[in-house]
Amino acid sequence: MTTAKQPTLGTVSVAAIRQYLRAADHLGIATAPLLQQAGLDPQNFQSDEGRIDGTRFQNFIRLLCNASDNPILGLETGDFVQPGSYSVLGYITMSCSTLGEAIQRIAPYEKLVGDMGLTQVLVSGDELNLIWQCGYPDHVVRPQLIDNVISSWIHYARWLADDRDTAPMAVHLERRSPGAEYTHTYAERWRCPVEFNAADNRIIAHKDLLDIPLRQPDPGLRRTLEAHAQTQMAGIEDQAALMTRVREAIRQQLVQGVSRQDIVAENLRMTRRTLQRKLSLEGTSYQALLDDVRQSIAEDYLANTTLPIPDIALRLGFSETTSFHRQFKARVGVTPGDYRQKGQP
What we know:
Layout: E1 11-13, H1 14-27, H2 32-37, E2 51-53, H3 54-68, H4 73-77, H5 87-94, H6 99-103, H7 106-109, E3 117-124, E4 127-134, H8 141-160, E5 170-172, H9 180-190, E6 194-195, E7 201-206, H10 219-234, H11 240-255, H12 261-267, H13 272-281, H14 286-304, H15 309-315, H16 321-332, H17 336-342
Parallel strand pairs: 5-6
Antiparallel strand pairs: 1-2, 3-4, 4-7, 5-7
Helix pairs in contact: 1-3, 5-10, 11-12, 11-14, 14-17, 15-16
């Protein structure tokens, strides 16, 4: 029997992981053993332009989450964002003239920061929507990474705007609430209402924010930095972007109780055959990504809800509960019932 190749999570800039290291140091968490467990060598962190494997980065974040035992770790790590956390993209945004100009630089250059997800900027009427799709499937890491990205954006925007009022109108998060005792913390930090269990992750703001002037505009430097960024972009493989979009499309379908490849392909504006070919070129398949997302959602349901296991199986598109049991045990070594009873491994 042939085992499907584990889907890649791309790479992450060294600059991005340093934000987590600063947060861990503040919390008094020793990161050296966590880095070693995750297979990361601190000696490779010398240059901001260095990159690390995305799967190892995900493993490190999970270990850090477990070590901190903090359900809002991702939210709090946003306090430790710096321009350098975004690699050269951070310095590009610093040299922009307005917040809108800086925001428009995120999507084209976010891959320099890493393959953690994809950003979309939409302006409709008087409303600005900044939407982020998380590309990491781990059910422990994913909500904390979402919190970190949104929190870092809001915190960094305030800094860029020299502490002018950049508060959003609202923030939507796909993650579950971390608990009633923590939800007020989000609204207090972000100065706006926060909706959990949302369809996606987005910051909603008035479009007037786009006109806020920044503290250090330098058009000449921005052009130089963008030329450097484009050179760097040319050297980075573009594997993770398609898989992030496919995973997110699958996730959105499973929430609605379906999992059809033809619909995913149509949403991505390609035929089913073209999607199969592109995924094959990247060493994976639609089924492998479907299994990956199903597993992530299953672990989340088992760890954080009281849904009966047959209902979970049905929501994930399994026609029989026994098939769900068999696949779950093959991936983690225990049955869904044992996983829920004993807690995550």
